[in-house]
């Protein structure tokens, strides 16, 4: 476990999965990140790589060879090496190896950087293709925030506030795969009231967002989480329908397989294409108050 902090916030990161496990406001020691109670969901903020969501039948093809990979890939379950450490910044690294090549046939290097800027933590992903072949991958974030954030409040006291979008439909999942069924999400308003039954059919998938940020806010307190995600083409919003006291706001480069997917990784919706020796990078941030 590594701790980085400044005068405003404190962040803890575990070497397994390079996963952020705590995001704390120091002025009142308030925790904003979900505690990973396995009763509901035993993770805090896993990194999704080299896929986001599920592939059909937990299988995919590259050049007619079949590989097995479970939901969200393997990065979250592997030990990363701590390669750089400062008071307000750390970098973790995962490098492909013989075991990972059995699941994913590309040589890669994945760096995850956490950097503090005032009351914000910036999380950057760097994917380098170390292979001789063109590499196909997805990557995404899965941070879970306490919902409600303030003791004594109810889930229904909270809402999502989008920066620009006022009309938006959400795609539904069907047994973990992306369907073509949509529901109204925003209608002439950039505010989405929250309630448990919103997630009765699993996560809601947003495409084509105009907004570069979304905030989790309360009608009864000043607690707030703001997620900035410029450039990310997809977003998942999720909470288990079992009364779990957290909500996930998930910026993604990639998405689950379609129901009628043929399993070809190279033609998968949302897949990133990376030439040999080239590095992909993206950054999202979380600010709290």
What does it look like?
GO terms for molecular function: carbohydrate binding; isomerase activity. Pfam families: Aldose_epim (PF01263). This is Aldose epimerase. The chain is mostly beta strands and 289 residues long. The chain has a single domain, classed as Beta-galactosidase, Chain A, domain 5 (Distorted Sandwich), CATH 2.70.98.10. It is 1% helix and 48% strand. It contains 1 helix and 25 strands. The strands form 5 sheets. Strands 8-9-10-11-25-21-20-15-18 form a 9-stranded antiparallel beta sheet, with no helix packed on it. The chain is globular and about 55 Å long.
Strand count: 25
How large a portion of the residues is in β-strands, by DSSP E?
A: over 45%
Helical content (DSSP H or I, runs of 4+): under 10%
> What would you call the shape?
globular
What is the CATH C-level name?
Mainly Beta
What would you call the structural class? Answer: mainly beta
Read across the widest sheet, the strand sequence of neighbours is 8-9-10-11-25-21-20-15-18
The CATH topology is given as Beta-galactosidase, Chain A, domain 5
Rg over CA atoms? 18 Å
By DSSP (H or I, 4+ residues per run), the number of helices equals 1
Distance between the termini: 24 Å
Overall pLDDT score = 97
Biggest sheet layout: 9 strands, antiparallel
Count of the separate structural domains: 1
CATH architecture: Distorted Sandwich
Encode the helix/strand succession as letters: EEEEEEEEEHEEEEEEEEEEEEEEEE
